[in-house]
Amino acid sequence: MEYLIGIQMKHDYDKMFKLSEKILLLCVGEAGDTVQFAEYIQKNVQLYKMRNGYELSPAAAANFTRKNLADYLRSRTPYHVNLLLAGYDEADGPGLYYMDYLSALAKAPFAAHGYGAFLTLSILDRYYRPDLTREEAVDLLKKCLEELNKRFILNLPSFTVRLIDKDGIHDMEKLPIGPK
Amino acid sequence: MALQDVCGLHNPPLFPQWTAPLSRSFMPEDSTHLSGGGIHGEAFSTRLPGRGGLSPLEFYMPIAEYLTESPINFGQTSLSSALTKLLEIDHLYPSLPSISLPPPTPCPISPSVPLPFTLSHGTTTLGFAFQGGVIAAADTRSSCSGLVACPASPKVLPIHSHLVGTTSGTSADCALWKRILSRELRLYQLRHRRRLSTGGAAKLLSHMLHPFKGTELCVAATLCGWDGDEEKHDVASTPQHANAPTNQMTAIIYVCSDGLRLQGELFSVGSGSPYAYSILDSSVYWGMSVQEATAVAREAVYRATYRDAYSGNNVDLYHVTAKGWRRRERENLKEEYYREKERERKRRVIAY
Q1: SS3 of A179, please?
Q2: Measured on CA atoms in the order B200, B205, B206, B208, is the torsion positive or negative?
Q3: Strand order in the sheet with A81-89
Q4: N or C: which end of chain A has fewer CB within 10 A?
Q5: A151 CA to chain B: closest CA distance, Å?
Q6: Which alpha helices (DSSP H) does chain A contain, by range?
Q7: Can you tell me the distance from the alpha carbon of A149 to that of A143, in angstroms, rounded to the nearest whole number?
Q8: Buried b (16+ CB within 10 A) or exposed e, A153-172
Q9: Mutant choice from B262, B267, B273, B308 vs A, greatest count of A C-beta within 10 A
Q10: Which UniProt key words apply to this protein (chain B) (predicted)?
Q11: How far is A11 from chain B, CA to nearest CA, in Å?
């Protein structure tokens, strides 16, 4: 959802950028910075693949992103973006990297940005286990969204959900909030 | 250049040579003059033999006694005195190209005066797609902190034959960037022998505006266009499903100087946009006819001008199809207002 002075301009705005077959970059923050920075990272990751013949691993991509964010941080044009980088590595398995606009980087089992984070992190703390099945994970996500629906002041009509596993990125059904 | 003169450099060269080194005669370079300060900086400090001490910058320097006048007269007076001095220069140096200044307009905003309140983007513009193409509509009021600077300014500007852009924000910035975009699209068309798509045009505009992020530049445009070849069948003649925009070549993209770029089916921009949104959200559907769409767009702008102080005067409406854009005649909404009042009065008479 893109808001402009309190009006929703678009209800189906996709904030995820596909960096490679198994890496997604979720980018939120200031209006133009998000797209500019995310597309820059996206094209650079693809360029790496073209030049070297193989794709960057999620850890490498995350560190590359962090380095760029840090370089711009003390320039005249810092990017005010908060990022989540999610990917599947052949050797290391799935990985989630949390990055904020001050270019802090942390590998985390679960993460959230924005005001929604205040509401959802404790649910994730309570119910997350490293050995969740796919159905349990989707249920956990639904629990988070129910809480947002109940307590969050902004109306968030729909969420895009994607799953990354050894076979790549899979679009899952959009999760709506609200009475069915 | 202006700074050097203010700082007291002696006898700067006459202004035609601002844009070129002294060795060259005056040729308006299209791109080099934009970066004037850099390599040509040295040229400006040399003295020209035989020229009078008249600096063109004196035209724009305020004369002390007028500083106490109200801001509305301030700009007018200095520009008209500049006009007479310019004519004198033309007489003395006939080889110079003559410059025609626009008629002096009141300009109450000067950078040294703090703004009394934040200026809203005083406008209502909208664009939406339907089975018959794209409708782009806007009001025509240009406001300047509480004053209607121009009641008849065009806010929907055609960029090329199949693309129009609605503008919101600073009028000057919008007009300039629209022209720059038209130029770049035309160059693309000449080089690649095809028109750039609306998405491409939006991306180009967004990337051109990005370096100015954080400055006072303010442009919020909705590009409404038709992509694809004209040889394709006219979509309006074939029956479409109620919600089948996928075959359509229409594109509506909102581009903002913040860097935001959104593609969608319906957008409204400006201070009057909430009022317009309320009308459009309930009345716009894919299968509407051209007359219906025109009526809805016109109604939306009318309602917005009714409630929003910064929107008003006339409504411009453009309709873009596979054959290009067509412009509806500018309509004065004052008539509509009085017609509605008349209807209300009649209704009340009948009721009692």
Answers
A1: coil
A2: positive
A3: A16-20, A23-29, A81-89, A93-99, A105-107
A4: C
A5: 26
A6: 31-52, 58-73, 116-127, 134-151
A7: 10
A8: eeebeebebebbeeeebeee
A9: B262
A10: Cytoplasm, Proteasome
A11: 10
Q: Are B263 and B250 in contact (CB under 8 A)?
A: no
Name residue B237's amino acid: S
Compute the distance between CA of residue A28 and CA of residue A17 in angstroms, rounded to an integer: 11
Structure ipTM over 0.85, yes or no: no
Q: Report the candidate in B303, B304, B300, B305 with the shortest Cα–Cα distance to residue B317.
A: B300
Which residues, 6 or more positions from A159, have their beta carbon under 8 angstroms from its beta carbon? Answer: A145, A174, A175, A176, A177
Contact residues for B135 (Cβ-Cβ < 8 A; gap 6+): B126, B127, B128, B129, B224, B293, B294, B297, B317, B318, B319, B320
Sequential pLDDT tens for chain B (352 residues) = 555 555 555 554 444 444 444 444 434 444 444 334 334 444 333 444 444 444 544 444 444 554 454 444 333 333 334 444 444 444 444 444 444 444 344 444 444 444 444 445 688 999 999 998 999 999 999 888 778 888 888 999 999 889 999 989 888 888 899 999 999 999 999 999 998 999 999 999 999 998 888 888 889 999 999 987 655 444 444 444 444 555 678 899 999 888 889 999 999 998 888 888 888 988 899 999 999 999 999 999 999 998 888 888 899 999 999 988 999 888 888 888 888 889 889 888 887 6
Do the Cβ atoms of B265 and B252 come closer than 8 Å? yes
| Chain B residue with Cα closest to A4 | B269
DSSP B216: S
pLDDT in tens, B256-281: 888 889 999 999 998 888 888 888 98
Amino acid symbol at B186: R
Question: Hey, which residues does B326 pair with through a beta bridge?
Answer: B319
**CA A34/CA B113 separation, integer angstroms:** 34
- What SS3 state is found at A9? strand
Best CA proximity match to A22, nearest among A67, A69, A54: A54
- The encoded tokens of residue B108 equal 């109450």
The answer to whether the CB atoms of B258 and A32 lie below 8 A apart is yes
- Least Cα separation, residue A32 to chain B (angstroms): 3
pTM listed for this prediction: 0.68
Instruction: Tell me whether residues B260 and A7 touch, CB distance under 8 A.
Output: no
Closest CA to B119 of B141, B153, B146, B150: B146
In the chain, the amino acid numbered B141 is R
Residue the block writes with tokens 């076979």 = A167
Total residues belonging to chain A: 180
Q: Do B260 and A32 touch (CB under 8 A)?
A: yes
**How far apart, in whole angstroms, are the C-alpha atoms of residue B153 and residue B240?**
36
Task: List, by residue number, the catalytic residues of B.
Answer: 123
